[in-house]
Amino acid sequence: MLTSLAGKSVLVTGGSSGIGLGIARVFAQQGAKVAISARSADRVETVAAALRNEGLDVHGYVADVADAAAVRSMVDAVAAAQGGIDVLCANAGIFPSGSIDELTPEDWDLVLNTNAKGSFLAVQACLPYLRKAEYGRVILTSSITGPITGFPGWSHYGASKAAQLGFMRTAAIELARDNITINAVLPGNVLTEGLIGMGQAYCDSMAASVPLKCLGTVEDIAYAALFFASREAGYVTGQALSIDGGQVLPESLAALG
């Protein structure tokens, strides 16, 4: 049994859908005060209101994670409303597809700025508050794509997710002096709106490549993030945890029988 997170202040960027929404719901169910951020004001407030209707303490904030001033303003507002920030879940990310032949410099910058720079900006803005916390926690949402695997059309996405881990390893050393840990969850194929939007054939092919023969859920990722956020995980930092049903293990589909 992990120490309760009741009363802890948690910020989840990209918390209005997919894995971020799953993380926000699970943390709030554990009694945390949760702020979710997204670029769309209508979307983030609609989602936050729905979670409050479930009896959860969740409020929405608007920010583009690639905009340093917007991130800092949002973080300050969250800290003022929730009495500080104990846990940052830097989850915001995008995954548009495009082959190397087709990608423009602007396409590349959009993904790297959102996924990699956005994580850095969120951590940097939260640092003054994490330093004041009893124990600060940062959890990055990376991916198996980039750090471990590759997939056609996602060179920019893979680069951004690998960049997060490079940032994390040095950040772990720098933040340790302030009793702040930083770790990353690496989801495999998780059943979210984005994955469903890629079509049933894609979902079926991905499930077939997983030894557990099913896609992951947002809760699978959220409970791993919950462990990293716990007091009990205080001696774990700079680590990347794959949550993929064993997807990266087989040498080929033939290995799955």
From TrEMBL:
Q: Which GO terms describe its molecular function?
A: 3-oxoacyl-[acyl-carrier-protein] reductase (NADPH) activity
Question: Per its record, how is this protein called by name?
Answer: 3-oxoacyl-ACP reductase FabG
Q: Which residues form a coiled coil?
A: none
* Superkingdom, taxonomy of origin: Bacteria
Name of the gene: fabG
Q: Which UniProt keywords apply?
A: NAD, Oxidoreductase
Q: What CDD domains is this protein classified in?
A: SDR_c
Domain (Ketoreductase) spans 8-188
The EC number(s) attached to this protein equal: 1.1.1.100
Report the family membership. Answer: Belongs to the short-chain dehydrogenases/reductases (SDR) family.
Tell me which SMART domains the record gives.
PKS_KR
Is Nucleotidyltransferase one of the keywords UniProt gives this record? no
What the entry lists under Pfam families is as follows:
adh_short_C2 (PF13561)
